[in-house]
Specification:
Blueprint: H1 30-63, H2 65-81, E1 83-86, E2 90-93, H3 99-107, H4 148-170, H5 172-176, H6 178-190, H7 192-205, E3 207-218, E4 221-234, E5 239-248, E6 251-260, E7 264-270, E8 276-280, H8 284-289, H9 292-295, H10 316-333, E9 336-347, E10 350-361, H11 363-377, H12 390-400, E11 405-412, E12 415-423, E13 429-436, E14 440-449, E15 452-461, E16 468-475, E17 478-490, E18 494-505, E19 508-520, E20 535-537, H13 543-552, H14 554-566, H15 568-574, E21 612-615, E22 618-622, E23 630-634, E24 638-642, E25 648-656, H16 663-668, E26 679-694, E27 697-710, E28 718-730, E29 733-741, H17 752-755, E30 764-766
Length: about 775
């Protein structure tokens, strides 16, 4: 809660005064206005009384004027220099009056008597509390001439009355207003200032925020997965950077490198796209709606919720906070608070003395604000299609809530120590209590409706240090609980919270993990996007341009898809393609295991399903190939892969140094067709025996790009590219992969470093 709950109160910094020398009274300060008027009326009576008596001592005052003036000046100085503490922090003059003033004060104690009451309002029964003369008490008659000290006392008394009037009008409503006391107590109890200052510093001056969420297990099954997020923002330079990584079972499945400047947002899917997908910040919603790729899909969709959406990262935090503050301010402004006096109350098992306040939020305010939130949440939905209207929602909320929300708030040492709130009216009845001190935060909320009850209990130890405890939900005889412990480290410019949690249901662990959150106001080194990378504007590109983007990054996309299918967890959820060990046949007609009459050669018993290459005593199992390329044939001598579109063909072999003198020799002896009676071959480009470092080992490769023209057939010439990749898997044994790329396929534009994946460690295993 902010400090704007006394709107309309008198501004103590004003220098304007009304005709009576008093600050002007502002509307909305009822107690101050009443007090000021009564004080003025009574001071006028006092002045008249002094005038009636003035005839008696006027001559004396004239004769001894010089002495009196000096004494009055001295006492005025004393009056100004010796303040007393008044009303919890505001100083009033008049603590040590002169001996003469004390005598007059004793004679007229009803005129300059008791201290103010709690609310700054005058007490009109006998002596009041503000030093004013009650209307029903006649003025005291002076029987003898007044001394110089008495006159000085009168002047000091007048000054005291004026000071009290000013104090009452300006300060007392704020000092003694019970609503302000409750507001301040909430702020002090939860000590939000320090955190707010850190967040505000990051928001205004920039800084770093981060979190790491670790999921150790789900329903007892080991997961070992995490999400890491780190963002640096600099509002002055209008630059932002963030990184996010999703790790599943030890594999970095998704890595995002994000950035923003004042104009655009940039997102790079690392290992998937070499470049940024970008979109504008200003007018983002409209740009998305009009994007050629999405326009047709959004034609029949209600886009009203996003059409005016802007992505202003450098102001959005402030606007969200302002909106949230506005809602609570409006609720609080329409609430009332009454002081109920001192009470003994039990807090976390200890009996303490506290001041009780009753806070009442009118039912209509509660209904209106809940309705406002619900209406905003449903703004993008067609309520009529659900058989609802806006008025139906509000009527339903109004039916559920049976009366004003009334809470008893107990305050000790200027902190909230207990809250009680209950209501049995309406469809929903509730009972809430919360105890809070330095040792624990405990409480329970019970909700009942239609014979069904729900209970939420909280039990947190060391709430202001390293909180630990549990939150328990009981519903319909079933129990779910979150148990947690935390370690908090903080300084003026940094705070970290390391939270470990365990979610269980009816005593069985459902989720275990940890969350590390950090805020740092020192690191403002945001650099924005990498200008050397290519950009793809998702809001402007055509379908052809989108396809080109995919084609440009085809092999990386396929590599990423392969990583997904081979991941231990994700692969089990989405499937990992062929299980070659269990691959028994190609179709219903080619079960070679059962084909006894094929011939008498035992080798043919495994015809077409082999995944193990053999040479001498060496065996290598082929586990897979490039994405989109599927197993087609296998034997102990060679294993083939191809795609459905007949654009790529890969054949694996295992050879030893009996056939090749070296790995270089193996790479150079690549098959390339030559001209014959069928076709004429033209070599466009070729490169042999190239070396590449790959997975901390050497790979040799060769390439030949040819053009084939048919002689006796009316077929268009076609271009083909041949590659050979060779890797020494054990000393003297070479795994060889020959690749043929046919035209009209996206594979045709592949780079050697992409195709080298055919001999990566994920594609084979030495047996």
């Amino acid at each position: 809660m902010d400090n704007n709950f006394n709107n309309g109160n008198f501004n103590p910094n004003q220098n304007q005064f009304n005709d009576y020398g008093q600050p002007p009274i502002q509307p909305g300060v009822d107690q101050s206005q009443q007090f000021a008027q009564q004080s003025f009326d009574q001071s006028q009576q006092f002045v008249q009384q002094a005038a009636d008596q003035g005839q008696q001592f006027a001559q004396q005052a004239a004769d001894q004027g010089q002495q009196f003036a000096q004494q009055a000046a001295d006492q005025g100085q004393q009056f100004a220099q010796q303040p007393q503490n008044f009303g919890g922090g505001f100083n009033l003059a008049g603590q040590d009056m002169s001996q003469q003033f004390a005598q007059i004060n004793q004679q007229n104690q009803q005129q300059f008597g008791a201290a103010p009451n709690n609310f700054g309002a005058p007490n009109m029964n006998g002596m009041n509390n503000m030093g004013n003369i009650p209307n029903n008490v006649p003025p005291t008659k002076v029987k003898k001439s007044m001394s110089k000290g008495a006159i000085a006392g009168i002047i000091g008394g007048i000054a005291a009355v004026i000071a009290l009037i000013v104090c009452g009008i300006i300060f007392l409503p704020k000092i003694f207003d019970p609503k302000k006391k409750v507001e301040d107590a909430f702020e002090k109890s939860f000590e939000t200032d320090k955190n707010s200052e850190l967040v505000e510093s990051v928001q205004k001056n920039g800084g770093e925020t981060s979190f790491t969420l670790n999921i150790d297990s789900v329903m007892g099954q080991k997961i070992d997965s995490s999400i890491d997020y780190d963002m640096i923002i600099n509002p002055q330079s209008k630059l932002l950077n963030y990184d996010m990584t999703l790790n599943v079972m030890g594999d970095d499945i998704l890595k995002i490198n994000g950035a923003a400047n004042e104009e655009n947002t940039y997102i790079q899917l690392e290992d998937i796209i070499d470049g940024y997908v970008i979109f504008p910040n200003k007018g983002f919603g409209q740009a998305l709606i009009n994007a050629p790729l999405l326009k047709d899909y959004l034609a029949d969709t209600d886009v009203s919720s996003i059409e005016n959406l802007d992505l202003n990262y450098f102001e959005i935090i402030e606007s969200v906070e302002t909106e949230g503050d506005t809602i609570f301010d409006e609720i609080w402004d329409q609430s009332t608070v009454k002081s109920k006096g001192n009470q003994s109350v039990t807090v976390n098992g200890n009996s303490i003395k506290a001041k009780q306040y009753e806070v009442t939020i009118p039912r209509d305010v509660v209904v209106d604000k809940i309705d406002e939130v619900v209406q905003q949440a449903l703004a993008s939905y067609d309520l009529s299609s659900m058989g609802l209207s806006s008025s139906d929602i509000k009527n339903t909320i109004s039916t559920l809530i049976g009366g004003d929300l009334v809470a008893q708030v107990y305050i000790a040492d200027k902190k909230v120590v207990r809250i009680d709130c209950s209501n049995t009216a309406g469809i929903i009845s509730y009972n809430l209590w919360i105890d809070y001190d330095d040792t624990a935060l405990t409480g329970e909320l019970k909700l009942s409706a239609g014979g069904t009850s729900v209970s939420i209990k909280i039990d947190v130890k060391d709430p202001n240090g390293n909180p630990n405890g549990s939150i328990t939900l009981d519903a319909a005889g079933e129990t779910a609980a979150v148990n947690f412990s935390s370690t908090v480290t903080e300084s003026s410019d940094e705070k970290k919270v390391d939270l470990k949690f365990d979610v269980n249901y009816d005593g069985e662990s459902m989720l275990e993990g940890s969350l590390l959150v950090g805020v740092n106001s020192k690191n403002t080194n945001a650099t924005g996007p990498d200008t050397s990378l290519k950009t793809y504007d998702i809001t402007k590109m055509s379908e052809d341009e989108a396809m080109q983007m995919v084609e440009d990054n085809y092999y990386q996309i396929n590599e990423w898809a392969t990583k997904l299918t081979q991941n231990e967890l994700i692969g089990s959820l989405i499937g990992s393609g062929y299980d070659y060990d269990d691959y028994d046949d190609f179709d219903d007609y080619d079960d070679y295991d059962d084909y006894d009459d094929y011939d008498d050669d035992d080798d043919n018993d495994n015809y077409g399903k082999e995944t193990v290459l053999e040479t001498g005593d060496q065996k290598v199992e082929i586990l897979g190939c490039l994405d989109g390329v599927e197993f087609s044939y296998g034997s102990s001598y060679f294993i083939d892969y191809e795609d459905d579109d007949y654009t790529i063909y890969v054949e694996y072999e295992l050879e030893d140094d009996y056939w090749y003198d070296s790995i270089t020799d193996a790479a150079e002896e690549m098959y390339v067709p030559e001209s014959n009676d069928y076709a004429e071959i033209e070599v466009i480009d070729e490169s042999y025996a190239n070396s590449m470092d790959f997975e901390d080992t050497q790979i040799m490769w060769s390439m030949s790009h040819i053009k084939r023209s048919y002689i006796d057939y009316d077929w268009d010439p076609e271009e083909l590219t041949y590659y050979r990749f060779v890797r020494e898997v054990t000393p003297g044994y070479y795994l060889i992969a020959d690749i043929t790329l046919y035209p009209d396929g996206t594979w045709f534009t592949a780079k050697p470093e992409d195709l080298a994946q055919v001999v990566s460690s994920k594609c084979f295993e030495v047996k």
